[in-house]
Structures are given as C-alpha cells and as structure tokens.
Design goal:
heterodimer, A: 183 residues, alpha/beta, 7-stranded mixed beta sheet, 28% helix, B: 203 residues, mainly alpha, Potassium Channel Kv1.1, Chain A, 3-stranded mixed beta sheet, 9 helices, 62% helix, 6% strand, Skp1_comp_POZ (chain B)
Chain lengths: 183, 203
C-alpha cells in the first residue's frame, strides 16, 4: 500500500476505531498533527489519571492512565547560559510508552513544551497537573517562564525532592499565582 | 426471491452502483448489522440497493463475509499477528483504493469484524511513528476536501434513508398481505358492513 493514506477522509466511526487501536503515546503524537486530529481524539473521551511535570536538568512529563507515557524535552545548545534559564523550545523530544523500551524520537518538533502539555490536558480532559516535581536544589528554570509553560492548569501538588526551603523565594511566590499547593 | 425466515441457503440479490446485481447468502449478509436492522425480519421483494458502492467492492466485502460465516461471534479486534493466512492474503491483495472502498462499504454495512480488522491494519501503519512521520502518512485534507467530505456524508445519509424507506415499504406490504390473518380481515370487513347496515336501518 502507498505511504500516503487519507486517514481523515475515513468515515467517523472507522477513524475512531483506528485511533482506539493506537497506543496512547501515538494518540498524543497524532493529536499534535492538526486541529482536526486533536478534536477527533478529544471526542473519543479517553482518560488519564495523573499528570506529572518534572524539572531537573531538563523538563519531563509523565502520564499515568490506561497506558503509561514519558516525554523528555531536551534543549538545544542555546539554552546553556547562566541560570535560571527560560523554559526552552525543545530541540529534541523523546517519547516512551511505559510498557516497552521503544522510544519515539522527535527532532526539532516545532511544538513548545506548553503546547505539548496543553494538548495532553485537552485531549484527555485533564485540566490539572497533579504533581509538579522539582528535582534540583534550585530550580534551573526561570519561574515566570515555568508558570507560562504550566499555563492555566491547576497544580494540585508540588514536590521538592531536595529541601523546598532552598527553592528561590521569588519562585514560590510566582508559582502561587498558579494555584500551587505546597505538599 | 427472499423470505423473512432466512436460512443459510437463502440468497439475496444485491445491487451495486453500476446497476449490476449479484447473489449473496443470507448467512453472509447477516454479518451486516445494517442489513439485520433493515431487512432480516421482513425480507426484500427486489434487489437490495447498496448503490453507493461498486460491484468489485461489494463482492470483496461479501467474499470476506462468506469466508467468516462459520467463525465464532466477533468479540473485539484480533491482533494482526493472529490473523489466518487467508485473512492476510485477503488484505494483502488489495491495493489502497480498494482497501479504502472496502472500509467505507464495511463501515456503511456495519460489519464489525471486517471494519475493525481494516482499522487495526491502518493503526499498524502509524505504529512507532512520531507526529511528523504521521503527517507524511495520513495526508491531511484541505478545506475544500473537508467540504467535499461533508457533501459525501450528506449524500450517504440520503442513500441510507432511501434504503430505510424501501425497507419500511416492504415491511408495510408484508404486514398487510402476509401477517394479517385472513380471519381478521374477514371480521374487519364484516364489522364495517354491519355498521353500514345499522346506520341504514336507523334512518
């Protein structure tokens, strides 16, 4: 069969069946393709249970649900300046389903981390970030840009893996505007 | 041509978009939920018009139905690796155009097993691909194409309505000519005549 397949021209029921046969991690990738694909996935009313956003050297997103998913967002060279740095436009993204070691790789995907998070939250109707995890003693990222990345999502819990007192005070202050509840 | 009490020997005539007709066994047709909803219990007094689909596509679809007549009831998608050699050959020998036509026809006829196998096959085409690779595969439609698709959907809805009307018409005929017992017809006529006679007497 030819590599060009007019998937979105299939009848709605068949298209939905195709999506239901896909892995969750592929469904997220598919929904990033266009507004039409995003809306099609959203209409299926798929659910996730927990969304984690972790900041350490890089930003990571981890989702729990019927299928576990991990995304690692890697910056390009230009982000290696003095800290705190702004949340970067990823130069490379790796996506890994929890059930295999198979890694999907996105090179210069052209989507911001915010768009990634927004899409996941939108298609799975999950408007919260259940856990915001800081793995470093001091957050590497500029808090205003982190807040922008979180967007309008409600942060249910934040976890400071080292000592939360050492997190920059101004950072905590800014994060409190995004409905932050300290763990 | 057909009878309501379908047995596997009963043949139904199917009409394609070219106006050609061909036979399909009742057992094969019963895998179509669309057929079951419209014709199974009432029969059809002429060819069943599936005129949105060409003969080759319909024959391919019913070839699958004939083959899977003796399989156990459908219970969800089967992994492609578990498909039989016959199933794999069936899918592999189709070109893309035929494959899409078969999905569309199978979707309209609501043949769960065939539709789901086709869809699982498409999902496999996207397996292990990232968004950029998926975009290359799925050929995103333009605004004009989306509009054209909507028109086709409307046309199909009209065709489905036509089939439903034909089924209803057949049902009505069956009800008046076959299902009403003769005694009931005689009694109804007798009552009418009695009422007429009484009204004349009162005058």
């Amino acid at each position: 069969m030819s590599s060009d397949f007019p998937l979105l021209r299939l009848p709605e029921k068949a298209l939905n069946l195709v999506i239901q046969c896909m892995e969750y991690i592929e469904i997220v990738g598919f929904s990033l393709a266009s507004n039409k694909t995003k809306e099609t996935v959203k209409a299926l009313n798929l659910q996730i249970t927990t969304l984690y956003l972790t900041t350490e050297e890089i930003i990571k997103v981890h989702v729990e649900g019927p299928s576990r998913m991990f995304w690692n967002f890697y910056p390009g060279e230009e982000n290696a300046g003095p800290e705190p740095i702004p949340v970067y436009m990823p130069a490379r993204v790796t996506a890994m389903p929890g059930n295999t070691r198979e890694i999907l790789e996105y090179l210069n995907p052209g989507y911001s981390i915010q768009k990634w998070i927004d899409t996941v939250q939108y298609i799975f109707s999950h408007p919260v970030i259940d856990f915001l995890i800081f793995k470093r003693e001091t957050c590497k990222f500029d808090m205003s840009s982190l807040v922008k990345t979180i967007g309008t999502a409600t942060v249910k819990r934040s976890c400071f893996m080292i000592m939360w007192r050492k997190v920059r005070k101004d950072g905590v202050k800014k994060l409190s505007n995004t409905k932050l509840w300290l763990a | 041509m057909t009878s309501p009490a379908s047995s596997s020997e009963v043949k139904y005539l199917i009409e394609s978009s070219e106006g050609n007709t061909f036979d399909v066994s009742g057992a094969a047709l019963r895998q179509s939920n669309t057929f079951n909803a419209m014709f199974l219990n009432i029969g059809a007094d002429g060819p069943i018009p599936f005129t949105d689909y060409n003969e080759a596509t319909l024959k391919k679809v019913f070839e699958y139905c004939e083959h899977s007549v003796n399989e156990e009831n459908y219970s969800g998608p089967k992994h492609q690796d578990d498909l039989s050699k016959w199933d794999l050959n069936f899918f592999n020998e189709m070109d893309q155009k035929m494959f899409i036509d078969v999905i569309n026809a199978s979707n309209f006829l609501d043949i769960e097993r065939l539709t789901s196998y086709c869809c699982e096959r498409i999902a496999r085409m996207l397996r292990g691909k990232n968004t950029q690779e998926m975009i290359k595969v799925i050929t995103l439609p333009t605004a004009e194409e989306l509009e054209a698709k909507q028109k086709v959907e409307e046309k199909k809805a009209a065709a489905a309505k036509k089939v439903a009307e034909k089924a209803a018409e057949t049902a009505e005929k069956t009800e008046t000519l076959e299902e009403l017992p003769v005694q009931q017809l005689v009694q109804t006529t007798r009552n009418k005549l009695t009422r007429k006679y009484l009204s004349f007497s009162n005058e």
